[in-house]
Amino acid sequence: MNGKPLVSIVSAGLSKFGKHEGLFAREIFSLAVKEAFDRCPKLDPKRDIKALFIGHMGESYEHQGHMGAAAADWAGLLGIPATRTEAACASSGAALRSGVYAVLSGLADVVMVGGVEKMTHRTTAEVTEYLAMASDYPFEQFHGITFPGLFALMATAHMNAYGTTQEQMAKVAVKNHHHASLNPKAHMQKEITVENVLASKMVAWPLKIYDCSLITDGASCIILTKPEIAGKFTDMPVHIVGSGQASDTIGLYERKTLTSLQSAKLAAKTAYEMAAVKPEDVNLAEVHDCFTFAEIMAYEDLGFCKVGEGGKLVVEGKTALGGRLPVNTSGGLKAKGHPVGATGVAQAYEMYLQLTGQADKRQVKDAQVGLTHNVGGSGATATVHVYRSDQA
Predict the structure, then answer these.
(1) Tens-digit pLDDT profile for residues 165-216
(2) Chain center to CA of 91
(3) What is the CATH number of domain 7-122+214-389?
(4) Where is 53: in which H helix or E strand?
(5) What confidence score (pLDDT) does residue 1 get?
(6) What is the pLDDT of residues 284-342, one digit of tens each?
C-alpha cells in the first residue's frame, strides 16, 4: 500500500481500567462506547456504523459467550453484523485487523472495533486457569505450567544467551508505573522503585509480582472509516497505514527459539512494508508487556534495537517519556492494566490520543508515527499496526 492510509480512526473511547465491582463486561464496554460517541458528535451511530468487531478472550469469567451480539445491544447498535474475535490476549488486535479488512473490502464504510474483559470478580487461581487456556492443553496446561512460567522460561533463555538481568526487567516496571501515574484511566497509578520490584514476591523465577501485569476489568473502542470520508466526522483523524498479523506454534516446546517471537517479527515485517516505514521512523509505541521481560523482547522483535540489547535500551532511558522512542506511555499492560480482550484496541486508543495531541501530561512531543504490538498467548498470535497522524 506504500504508506497510504488503509483506514482512519475518527474517534476512540476507553473505560477506566481497574476493578468495576457490580458491572458486567457489556456495561463496561458501554462506557468506552459512550466516550467514543461523545468525542464524535458528527457521527450518527445508528445510521453510520455498519459492523462491530469486538475482542473478548474468555467465556469462563462470566459464563458469557456470544459477546458480539451482547456488545451490539449495549452499544445501541442492534441489527448490524456483530462479531466476537478470540485470539487470547491479542483478541482485540485481531478485531482491529478484522475491522481493517471490512473497510478495505468495501462492505462497510464505518465500523466499530472494541474489546472487553471482566476479570476481577474471579480469584487469582481461577484467572490463572482461564488465561492458561491460551496455551497448549495436552502439553502445557495439563502439566501445570502457567503463563508466568512460560514467560519465565523465555526470560531465562534470554538471560543465558545475552546477559539480560533482573534489574533491567525491573527498570521496565519502574518506567511503566511512572507513565501510568500520568494516566487517569490506568489501574495502577503509583510510582515504584527498582528496589520495590526486586524485593517483591517471586512468582516464577526470575519474574516477581512487580514483573507481572494486573488482573483488570476494562473496555476499549475505536471508530474506523474509509480515509476519504474521515473528514465528515472529524478534523483530526489518525490513519492506520500498516497492519500485520501472524501466528506460530501454540506450544513453546515446538519453537526454534525461546528468545524472540517469530509471530511478532512476521507481523511487524508486514506492517512496516505496508506502511513504508522502518523501525527508526517510529516516534512511539505501545507494546505487549504482559511481563516486564516481554517488553524487552518486543524491542528486539520490532527492530528498535539489536538482538540482545533490549535490556540496555530501557536502562539508557530511550524508551521513557522524553527518550528517543517512548514505549507504553499509557502505562502498558504492566501498570495501566491488562483486561485481556480489551488490550489491543486500548493500545490503539493511546495512539489516537498521542497522534492528535490529546495525551495531556504524557504527550509525546511532535509524534507523527506510532506502532502497536499485541501478542496472544506465549506468542502463537501477534498483531502489529502502524499509525500516522493526519499532519504527518
Answers:
(1) 999 999 999 999 999 999 999 999 999 999 999 999 999 999 999 999 999 9
(2) 9
(3) 3.40.47.10
(4) strand 51-55
(5) 61
(6) 999 999 999 999 999 999 999 999 999 999 999 999 999 999 999 999 999 999 999 99
Residue recorded with cell 499532519:
391
And the C-alpha cell for 353?
Answer: 490520543
Q: Where are the alpha helices (DSSP H) in the chain?
A: 25-39, 45-48, 67-74, 91-105, 124-132, 147-162, 166-180, 194-199, 262-275, 292-301, 310-315, 332-335, 343-355
In DSSP notation, 332-380 reads: HHHHT---GGGHHHHHHHHHHHHHTT--GGGPPTT--EEEEEEEETTTT
> What would you measure as the largest C-alpha separation in the chain, in angstroms?
57
> For the chain, what are the domain ranges?
7-122+214-389
Query: What gap in Å lies between CA 88 and CA 373, rounded to an integer?
Result: 14
Contact 258, 162 (CB under 8 A): no
Catalogue the active-site residues: 89, 338
